[in-house]
Design goal:
single chain; alpha/beta; eight-stranded mixed beta sheet; 20 strands; about 30% helix; binds zinc ion
Length: about 425
């Protein structure tokens, strides 16, 4: 058999488990064989792991309108470097992505760039103003994969209820940034002993859980008597209490999914003692007890996927003081090595489960079939090294946001080759010439 790329001695791991070593022959955008063959490029990748490419259900790529922070070219290149073959972009741009024309234009431009594939989310309400619903059917037909007013909160429960109904009939999930605006107020960090000590305005964990409780009741209400089951996706879950509510709702049979970010799994509010705005994010970094609960939820499947909430800003903006700096942490290029190192290597978290939350989990939320490492499977894959150790160096990011709360952290698991349908979109150190 003849193909394009032969990856010899690759260790295969996907969301189902570990499958030993194989000589993986890739061609025509697919895995042609797991038992070798002839190819134009032959790479001996002994010691490296081959996995399905990652899907990020939550990234801010800032195009259109905020290209000074990030654009499709830099954002999708950063994604490919991070091992992502697929990215969902948030619609809180300028203007807001709330029309079929805009969704089509974004998809067309991303296809021309040819890095990670783009799956735009569109606004749930026109202009994300929370008043008039956008056209779910037209947006879905144009290629939008999710409806969300992320960046803002959904204050009107009636609008959310109607949005969930329409979205369900067109088979598209509604995603929410669940924070109660009144409880959150001007909070710049988690409300607790650290915010009290520093005298900074706090954002309590209950701002999140109170809003999740409301949204789950709205979902329960809408689910009654509706033929198509509505799907609510809760973005960037950060609290133990919020997780308990989600778990109960899932137990009751509601279709609610949730994601957790790399920062809420690896950092706590104590970091804010430094007063460094690098750690300013919404929802805020919480307590160690919240981190432990989130890791547990990720393990038992209550949390179905990792979403980066990659939120680039300019260095000038992020260097303002803690009160004035914008919320957000860029993470597309470090997310996999960070969680591989911190969860799998340091805490013994099962590798296949973590991979499931980067691959099958987010694909399921978008209604996409899983990619498993089998003959005939789509060759959207990532090759990464479990042994190569390297510190995080934001100066080398492809993202325009060249800062990171993990700068200097020594990590393993760095991707060295990313393939989208058999095409190399990122290569570093895998091809020896
Ligand atoms: Zn958000």
């Amino acid at each position: 058999m003849k193909g394009e790329i032969l990856l010899k001695n690759a260790k295969l791991v996907d969301g189902r488990g570990e499958h030993g070593q194989a000589d993986v022959l890739i061609g025509e955008g697919r895995i042609l064989s797991l038992s070798g063959g002839e190819a134009r490029w032959v790479l001996d990748v002994a010691g490296m792991v081959l996995s399905p490419g990652f899907l990020d259900p939550h990234a801010h790529l800032r195009e259109p309108g905020q290209e000074v922070k990030e654009d499709l070219q830099s954002g999708l290149t950063a994604a490919a470097r991070g091992g992502y073959t697929d990215v969902v972009s948030m619609p809180n741009t300028s203007p807001v992505v709330d029309s079929a024309e805009m969704v089509r234009a974004l998809k067309k431009k991303a296809a021309q760039i040819g890095q990670a594939r783009l799956h735009p989310a569109a606004a749930l309400t026109q202009g994300q103003e929370g008043k008039t619903l956008s056209e779910a059917k037209l947006l879905r037909e144009a290629g939008a994969v999710m409806l969300t007013d992320d960046g803002r909160t959904n204050e009107d429960a009636g609008v959310l209820a109607l949005g969930l109904r329409y979205a369900a009939s067109w088979g598209i999930p509604v995603a929410v940034h669940a924070e109660d605006a009144g409880l959150r107020r001007g909070g710049v960090m988690h409300e607790g002993e650290v915010s009290y000590r520093l005298g900074l305005p706090g954002n309590p964990g209950y701002a999140e859980s109170a809003r999740i409780a409301r949204d789950l009741e709205v979902l329960r209400y809408v689910s009654e008597g509706l033929a198509a089951q509505p799907h609510l996706h809760i973005q960037h879950l950060s609290t133990k209490r919020g997780l308990e509510l989600v778990r109960q709702a899932r137990h009751d049979g509601l279709r609610v999914s949730t994601e957790v970010t790399p920062h809420h799994l690896t950092l706590t509010h104590e970091r804010l003692e430094s007063l460094n705005p690098l750690y300013k994010v919404a929802p805020p970094l919480r307590t160690q007890a919240d981190v432990e609960a989130l890791v547990e939820g990720l393990l038992d499947g209550s949390i179905e996927c990792i979403g980066t909430d990659h939120a680039p800003h300019t260095a000038d903006e992020k260097e303002l003081d803690l009160l004035r700096a914008p919320f957000g942490i860029p993470s597309l290029e470090v997310c996999w090595p960070l969680l591989y190192t911190e969860l799998v290597e340091k805490r013994g978290f099962p590798l296949a489960v973590l991979l499931e939350r980067f691959t099958d989990g987010p694909r399921r939320i978008l209604g996409l079939a899983p990619i498993h490492l089998e003959e005939g499977a789509e060759a959207s894959l990532v090759l990464w090294s479990p042994d190569e150790e390297r510190p995080v160096d934001p100066k080398c990011f492809a993202s325009k946001a060249r800062f990171s709360p993990w700068a200097g952290w020594v990590l393993r698991g760095w991707p060295s080759l990313t393939l989208v349908e058999g095409r190399m979109v990122y290569e570093q150190g895998a091809v020896q010439v």
